[in-house]
Amino acid sequence: MSAGDAPVVETRSLTRRFGNVTAVNAVDIEVRQGEIFGCLGPNGSGKSTLMRVLLGLLAPTSGSASVLGLDMPRDAERLRPQVGYMPQHFSLYEDLTVRENLEFAGQVFGLPRRRRAERLEAVVETHGLHRYVETRAAALSGGWKQRLALAVATVHEPELLVLDEPTAGVDPQSRREFWENLFDLTAAGATIFVSTHYMDEAVRCHRLCLLRDGRRVAVGRPQQLVEALGDRVVNIAVDEPEPAIAALRSSSLVASTTQLGDTLHVLLVRDAPDADTAGRELVSQLAAAGLHGAAAQGTSANLEDVFVSLLISDQSGGRT
Amino acid sequence: MNTEVHAIPVAVLVRIGAIAHKELRQLLRDRLTLALMVGIPALQLVLFGYAIDVDVRHVPTAVLDRSQTAESRKLLGELAATQTFDLEREAADEHDAARLLEASEVGAVVVIPSDFAREFHRGRGAIVSILADGSDPTVSRAIALASQGLALSLSQRMGSVSDAPGNRFVHGPQQDLLRPDPIRIEVLPLYNPERRTAVFVVPGLVGVILTMTMMLFTALAVVRERERGTFEFLIATPVRRGEVMLGKILPYLFVGFLQVGIVLALGVLLFDVPIRGPLWKLALGALPFLAAMLSMGLFVSSVSRSQLQATQLSFFFFLPSMLLSGFMFPFEAMPEAAQVIGECLPLTHFLRIVRGIVLKGASLEFLADEILAIGLFFAVVFALAALTFRKRLA
Asked: How many structural domains comprise chain A?
């Protein structure tokens, strides 16, 4: 794989509309060879549409998309043998067995018989599917289905993997193993474009882009994104969380509040003073509301704070 | 889709084979569909076949006895004894008889002429007429059949005056025998002189069943993939549009031939349908029709979003096929407009082919026009399906 420095995926103000709805709005992204590029965003933010346009399954309304140097959707058919795709919903044949699904994929991806047998053996090994080789897909649990889907998507050793929320609804242990597999694949030279809802997964991506309402609102390494948020998070320990949340939400300093047991994790608004000052201010505001004994402490931001801050930044009175 | 020619046609065949094989596997695991595949032809054959050929008994019958003699009463006794006729009422006169038939109050009227006894004794052949309600071919055919045997046995049992062996009988007015039997029964089917039989219906049923099942199976095979989400996986693979289409059609061609076999085999077993033409000719004649109906299914699938829609659309096509093809009603008796529509339906042409081969042993050259018409329909529909079948979402 000598893709050189050319990006694996490159879009220029890519836009896709469905009637009046703009699902993907002037998105520019660049995915580099060998990285796991994450796509984070709430439901309906355009992640799936973006992926489908990249795969040539949907035509863009305007803008351009180039994938592995091929122009989408014009060269979609030439792209197919080089990509593996896991749609958001399980899309393999439930009435076929694990082996039959893998074999079918091997055939339609044009692997010669011998190679097909080797690859089938290899992915069964990689994903630990031995026990279930003769089991119909319908009988597999969520975690195993998702392993099978990844096995099928990689049976032809694609250069690019497009995974649409591959771990939705899967238990943490299976998700962890799934991600280990993804890193193995990138180590072998594959590039992965993955969307997710889970912050713990987003953190593991090499780079991330955040989508909101079809727009790209941020892009960068997870650490960069967190640092860019700066000193805007305060933890406040309180005795009575419920009234404290209500009080904080009416404060002009607070962008959002998340309850963590007896602690309130507070994201400050963009133009708030530094965390220490703002923390003291909030404690006194709580006291003024009759809520005494609160204690503020500056803390480091996490990716969820980034996510939340970006999602609400433009919204009037944005509170979550 | 670009115009690039694929380097290895083997890969194309492998992909078509992969889809066809997968389709067949899924089919064999779908017990309900499988049961329908065998069940629909069998059930329809039995329903239609027996409804036509069933041994009809107890037809409500009126009697117009102008003779009023011991002989005529004896004749009526014999008629009643066959159990085919229930002599329920007396008709006052011909008008009354016609009215009873028209109002469907009776299925037949037995008319015994006033000179019945005299003619019988003279040995000239006394004629008894049975007016049958021909709008129901089931009834009129049953009456005709019953009357055939009856005339013979009546002549013997009521005592023949002539020395004729009496093994000849007449059951239709058109036949003119030199030596008349003592009693002749003419059956005059009113309203629908063409009496159709299971022999006629069974070959037609082949076409009707194929129209219904073939279209539905392919339509559902594609729409199901869309509904279950597997279509999104499939179109993201290098499989070409034409490969998907062919892969979906091939297994059902096989199923189609299987159904032809089931219907004909049951037709022979249950209804003694004679198969005059060779089976290979029938297979050859059925091929374009099967391809046409399967393509129709593909077309239906590319314009429907759900299995329900596909089913409804299939029925939308199936109903006129059944009604206007000459299966339900004699084609020549239909209004001209209906005939024009009928000519556009592949079933119409297939009925001519299948009846021609099965019943008359007709050669394929005589059926070339019909095959051509179906071929044309196939070409148009396949092109439409290819144009509307997209390897895209939405």
From this structure: 2
